[in-house]
Write a structure and sequence with these properties.
mainly alpha; 6 helices; extended
């Protein structure tokens, strides 16, 4: 309806997007590259302080609550200790991204199954997937036990 009733507004937006794209190609590459290169020349402590201040402002400005800032600090401490203890990053990121999706689908499957967890393993396909998952999880333990036996 917007295209039919107000074509002048749509036409104006199209010209604006075209103009912005041309400016981005012409100025964006060189201007942004030079600006970011200058920012990276700042001393690391100053750059770190600026980043931390912007993160605090950004987290607080989302909902205007200090609880969000404390939550950010808590998860930052957890991340710091995980880095010091050499936790691998990809599984953590995958867990954070896919965790909510997996939980939502687990709730849906349990609701469909009437709250019975054994309904998740009722079909042959799900049994095969469960066995393969257990195999992948237990494979490092089994390989270590086999290496210890060969070592003796």
């Amino acid at each position: 309806m917007l295209f039919r009733d107000n074509p002048d507004i749509v036409f104006g937006f199209m010209w604006q997007f075209l103009f912005a794209a041309v400016l981005l190609v012409a100025l964006g590459g060189s201007l942004a590259t030079n600006s970011f290169a200058q920012v990276l020349k700042l001393p690391r402590p100053l750059l770190g302080a600026i980043i931390i201040a912007l993160v605090f402002v950004g987290v607080y400005s989302i909902n205007g609550r200090m609880f969000d800032v404390y939550l950010m600090l808590g998860f930052g401490m957890i991340g710091y200790f995980m880095d010091k203890l050499k936790f691998p990053l990809p599984p953590v990121v995958l867990g954070l991204i896919l965790g909510g999706f997996a939980e939502q689908n687990l709730r849906l499957a349990l609701r469909i199954g009437g709250g019975d967890a054994m309904a998740l393993a009722a079909s042959n396909t799900s049994k095969i997937i469960i066995l393969l998952t257990l195999g992948v999880i237990l494979m490092p333990v089994i390989s270590r036990l086999l290496q210890r036996r060969k070592g003796r």
